[in-house]
Amino acid sequence: MNYKEITDLIKLVNKTNLAEVKLKDKDFEISIRTSNFQGKSTQVVQSGASPIMQMPPATPAPAAPAPTPAPVAKKEPVAESTEGLLEVRSPIVGTFYRSSAPDKPPYAKVGDSIEKGATVCVVEAMKLFNEIESEVSGTIVKVMVEDAAPVEYDQVLFLVDPS
Description:
mainly beta, 12 strands, CATH 2.40.50.100, 1 helix, 4-stranded antiparallel sheet, 2 domains
């Protein structure tokens, strides 16, 4: 599941009367609790092997909301095979987008030649879309972040071959 799918799921759960939703898939698991959650035993409805949804108790009582923090993409360690490659890093924390709009082509993709100062992506921070410019010239070898994924300060976004 990517970041956008998770945020869409959270929005959908908030619009319902569900108290808790749990999804499990191989090595991925997420649990979302709403203000309807009381911590009492609940009825489990299971569809196939996954996902599992828990329905709210029959008589919901007011409870303090238990917000679930959104997952943040972790910095992936750069493999040893990246010797000689240059990195384009995020100068800010935010959400990574490869293009300026969903219907627009990406600024840069694998195989593209880029020059120093060329816009390679945008990072949204606090509702502002910041164009990220390359500090290196070369050919993009790998995009290190999925579109619409959260990024941290100084996280590697692209690997570039300078030759």
